[in-house]
Structures are given as structure tokens and as C-alpha cells.
């Protein structure tokens, strides 16, 4: 069965989800250099690329609450409650330390909550860009998002703002970049090859260093953000080209459940304390996350999506859809 909707953004989203798991399961310098320059930034970029200008700020807040923050809170409870007992038995963390991390949220959540910071950060970025769009219009919002670039000279401190609010504010740059590409989508078939080549060359040369947005490590100030936008645009163009005639429906379905994979994949990594071969760590992370996604597939509060949505040209899923 082939999807009737554009599959390119979903395929890129799925690649980004797998890249996040790989980055956590295989903490290797080569893996870091390959995926960290783009694998998180691409979701903020896609939020801009799938931007719908007619939504209000209140509507944006409702959608982000349903699609991002409700699953965030639900999985914190599902994983966190048994984890408190496990940590108490193994003395790996105190109850006070865990509860403090739950209260502060975002970047304060440690293993096995490695990717939880991303959800409030994406919500903040989307809401901030929606406010800028309402006040300044499309061009004004895009121009205002450039003001995030000077903040890349400030390391660490921005990431300490609870619930990833600071990270989300900086990541608004990528939302603006994605929105700009959406408005000039006709250029994408011609521009994606040089964008991908230039971005890859700057990373390979070492001029642009990887991003670790959770930690407030913005790589090479300004340049790494520009390169992440180039790579995101290049990969999007590549997948739009590859799936220009449509693609299998399972890609979009898998991407719609990817939020669960991102939130749960680190559980086996934590329980095994990385004391397995790398292939086993990756297989356990992907396998456990996929199993949880399958079990949660009809639970909107856990997936952030409506169960079994009908195919459509414009997605209702909210992991990256703005």
C-alpha cells in the first residue's frame, strides 16, 4: 500500500528519529560527527516547513499541549514511577534527585529520559514563532528568528533554564529557516544538492562542529546553526526527490508513532548501563522503543497523535507539524 500524501517529510522525520536513538545507543565520536550536526535541528526545521499560517496562538498552544506535553507527562509517569523503586534498590539515584529532575524538567532529566527535553523545547519554539508570526507576519518572524544566532556565543547557561525554555528560544531559528524554505519550495529541487554538499563539507572539514542542544553546546557559533539548516534543507530535498511519486504508507505510520520511540528507547540503555556490545545496545533501544510504540499505537495521550489517521496531504500529527 502506498501513501496518498507527500512522504518526503515523514521519511526525513523517521531518519531523524532513528538518528537520535543511534546517537544515544552508540556514544562514539564518529557517530557524533555524523548525526549531531543535524539530527535534532531537523525537527525544528520541519516544524517551520509544515507551518500553517492561519492558526492562532491559542490554537497552537492547544495543539502543542495535546501532541507534545501530554505524552511528555504521561511517559514521565509511566517510566518514572517504577524507576523510583529501581533506583532505590540499586542506589543509582536518590528519590530526591529524581523528583528534583522531574520538577525542573527538560535538560534536568537524565538517563533514561535522554530525549525528553526535546518536547518542551519544540513546544516553546513553535509558540514563540507563532507569536512572532502573529505580530510581525511571515517575513518579520523569519527576520526575528535570526536574533537567536548571537545567542550561540553563550554556551551552557541557556540550557539551564527549566523545561528547556531557553533551548526552545534559541531553536526558533530553525523554525524560521524551515518556514523560509516552505515559502520558496519551488527552489528546493535545484538547491538541495549544493546545500547538502556544502553542509557536509563544512562538517567534514571541522569548521562546523556538532551541536548538542540539550547541553547548550551550539557547536561553532553561528556557523553550526547555518550548517544544520543547510543539511536539513538538503536532506528534505533529497527525500522529497526520492519520494516524489509517493511512497509506502508504513513510512508515515511509523513516523507518526516515532515520539514513543524517542521517549522510551533509553530504558534498556539505562538498565544495562551500556554493558553490552554496541550492536546489542542499538538493537535493544530500537526494539524496545518499537515495541512500546506498537503497544501505544491507539493511545493518543501516549503518542501525541490521533489513532489510525486517514491519509491526507497535510498531516495532523504534531511531532514536527506546526
In short:
The protein is mainly α. It has helices at residues 8-25, 29-35, 41-49, 57-90, 95-104, 118-145, 165-183, 188-204, 223-242, 249-256, 258-264, 266-272, 278-295, 300-303. It has a domain at 29-248.
Show the helix and strand layout:
Layout: H1 8-25, H2 29-35, H3 41-49, H4 57-90, H5 95-104, H6 118-145, H7 165-183, H8 188-204, H9 223-242, H10 249-256, H11 258-264, H12 266-272, H13 278-295, H14 300-303
Helix pairs in contact: 1-9, 1-10, 1-11, 1-13, 3-7, 3-9, 4-6, 4-11, 6-7, 7-9, 8-9, 11-13, 12-13
Measure the end-to-end span.
Answer: 27 Å
Beta-strand percent range = under 5%
Question: For this entry, what is the oligomeric state of its chains?
Answer: single chain
Order of helices and strands: HHHHHHHHHHHHHH
pLDDT below 50 for ≥5 consecutive residues: which ranges?
308-322
Tell me the overall shape.
Answer: globular
Task: Report helical residue fraction.
Answer: 55-70%
Largest sheet: none
**Rg calc:** 19 Å
Helices, by number, come to 14
Transmembrane segments: 35-51, 72-89, 109-129, 136-155, 161-181, 193-211, 223-243, 250-271, 277-296
Domain Acyltransferase: 9-287
InterPro entries: Acyl_transf_3_dom (IPR002656), Nod_factor_acetyltransferase (IPR052734)
Keywords: Membrane, Transmembrane, Transmembrane helix
Amino acid at each position: 500500500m502506498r501513501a496518498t500524501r507527500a512522504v518526503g517529510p515523514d521519511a526525513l522525520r523517521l531518519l531523524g528519529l532513528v538518528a537520535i536513538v543511534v546517537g544515544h545507543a552508540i556514544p562514539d565520536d564518529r557517530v557524533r560527527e555524523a548525526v549531531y550536526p543535524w539530527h535534532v535541528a531537523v525537527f525544528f526545521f520541519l516544524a517551520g516547513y509544515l507551518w500553517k499560517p492561519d492558526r492562532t496562538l491559542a490554537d497552537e498552544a492547544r495543539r502543542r499541549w495535546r501532541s507534545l506535553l501530554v505524552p511528555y507527562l504521561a511517559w514521565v509517569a509511566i517510566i518514572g514511577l517504577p524507576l523510583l523503586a529501581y533506583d532505590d534498590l540499586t542506589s543509582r539515584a536518590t528519590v530526591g534527585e529524581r523528583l528534583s529532575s522531574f520538577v525542573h524538567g527538560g535538560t534536568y532529566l537524565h538517563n533514561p529520559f535522554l530525549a525528553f527535553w526535546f518536547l518542551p523545547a519544540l513546544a516553546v519554539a513553535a509558540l514563540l514563532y507563532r507569536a512572532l508570526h502573529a505580530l510581525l507576519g511571515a517575513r518579520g518572524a523569519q527576520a526575528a528568528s535570526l536574533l537567536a544566532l548571537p545567542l550561540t556565543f553563550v554556551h551552557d547557561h541557556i540550557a539551564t533554564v527549566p523545561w528547556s525554555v531557553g533551548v526552545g528560544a534559541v531553536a526558533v531559528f530553525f523554525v524560521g529557516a524551515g518556514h523560509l524554505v516552505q515559502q520558496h519550495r519551488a527552489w528546493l529541487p535545484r538547491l538541495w544538492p549544493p546545500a547538502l554538499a556544502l553542509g557536509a563539507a563544512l562538517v567534514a572539514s571541522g569548521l562546523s562542529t556538532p551541536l548538542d542542544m540539550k547541553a547548550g553546546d551550539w557547536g561553532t557559533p553561528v556557523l553550526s546553526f547555518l550548517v544544520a539548516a543547510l543539511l536539513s534543507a538538503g536532506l528534505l530535498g533529497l527525500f522529497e526527490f526520492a519520494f516524489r511519486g509517493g511512497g509506502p504508507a508504513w513510512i508515515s505510520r511509523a513516523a507518526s508513532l516515532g515520539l514513543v520511540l524517542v521517549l522510551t528507547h533509553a530504558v534498556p540503555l539505562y538498565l544495562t548501563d551500556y554493558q553490552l556490545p554496541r550492536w546489542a545496545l542499538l538493537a535493544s533501544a530500537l526494539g524496545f522503543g518499537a515495541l512500546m510504540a506498537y503497544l501505544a499505537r491507539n493511545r493518543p495521550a501516549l503518542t501525541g497523535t490521533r489513532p489510525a489517521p486517514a491519509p491526507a496531504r497535510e498531516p495532523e500529527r504534531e511531532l514536527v507539524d506546526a
